[in-house]
Design a protein that fits this description.
alpha/beta; TIM Barrel; two-stranded antiparallel ribbon
Length: 305
């Protein structure tokens, strides 16, 4: 018995010594695989006319994940949370994230707590099996002053705590004003990043919205490594149309514009902490939303996503 035990210890020691000589990355936790999806605002008119038929077309194209942009009166595209998640599951679709603007009507400053409207938003998102509840806008009244913005970033963090109770995370999605507006000499975008807890508030970087306002997504990703769990994948071309959102540019087929989309998403995957890549196209030139969605998906797959 004693001899057998010595043999066991000897063999175990050899095995451990061999393991010590092996490359460390052999035992490292595998990097999370990426999740590819589409923001349903891309096909907003189709979703308005025929949400079920449009979702069926997306599933047939090969999409596995969607991100909603329509939650009104506790309904997603006219369906209750339970009805909508069943539709998605029946089609083999998941909805890891969704857009609902969190505004003044969602936070009761006197009581220091969220109103029922926002609590319902989080509750219904959980029913739909979302992982992120994302606010895609910040009302101008909440960003008029530096101190006012900092105060509302505390609400962002509190929303993160609320979402966390349901196994989700709160998130914020940029447009263009975050890069064109400054407070105390600092870009609004930088203020938001620096004053939100990354454990509570995820950042969804829209790489197209910022372009006309001077933001360059590749630089942003490198400046804040690990901060962008989600990304809106876009490309932009110059347009004569001017407006609050356009800034002289409009979205187009991935790889056809000036943003440098592939380099940005590759960097997001490499250093940005990005797992969720959500295709969004809002302008279609001579194509249609559904045809553009199909083409964008093919390009992303060609790029290895």
């Amino acid at each position: 018995m004693q001899s057998s035990r010595r043999q066991f210890i000897s063999k175990t020691g050899i095995a451990l010594a061999g393991a010590a000589l092996m490359p460390r990355n052999l035992f490292a936790a595998p990097k999370p695989s990426t999740v590819l999806g589409i923001q349903l605002y891309t096909i907003r008119d189709d979703m308005k006319k025929d949400p079920l038929g449009t979702l069926k077309q997306l599933a047939a194209m090969g999409y596995k994940n969607v991100e909603h942009a329509n939650y009104i009166d506790r309904k997603f595209y006219g369906y209750s949370a339970k009805e909508f998640v069943k539709i998605l599951n029946d089609l083999g679709l998941k909805m890891p994230s969704g857009h609902t603007v969190m505004g003044r009507n969602h936070w009761d400053e006197s009581k220091k707590e969220f109103t029922d409207a926002w609590k319902y938003t989080v509750e219904d998102a959980a029913v739909c099996e979302q992982k992120f509840v994302i606010s895609p806008w910040l009302d101008e009244t909440l960003r008029k002053t530096y101190d006012g913005l900092l105060k509302y970033m505390e609400v962002f963090n509190k929303s993160g705590e609320l979402c966390q109770k349901s196994g989700m995370k709160f998130g914020y999605h940029n447009h263009n004003f975050e890069f064109s507006s400054t407070l105390n000499g600092e870009k609004v975008f930088d203020i938001i990043i620096k004053h939100t807890d990354p454990n509570l508030v995820a950042q969804q970087l829209d790489i197209g919205n910022m372009y006309g306002a001077g933001g360059r997504a590749l630089e942003v990703v490198k400046a804040y490594p690990g901060r962008f769990e989600l990304m809106h994948v876009k490309d932009e071309i110059a347009t004569p149309v001017k407006g609050e959102m356009e800034d002289g540019f409009e979205s187009t087929i991935l790889g056809a514009g000036v943003v440098g989309t592939k380099a940005i998403i590759d960097e997001g995957k490499k250093s940005g902490g990005t797992k969720y890549f959500i295709i969004e196209q809002e302008s279609y030139q001579n194509s249609t939303p559904l045809l553009s969605s199909k083409e964008d998906l093919a390009i992303m797959k060609k790029w290895g996503y």
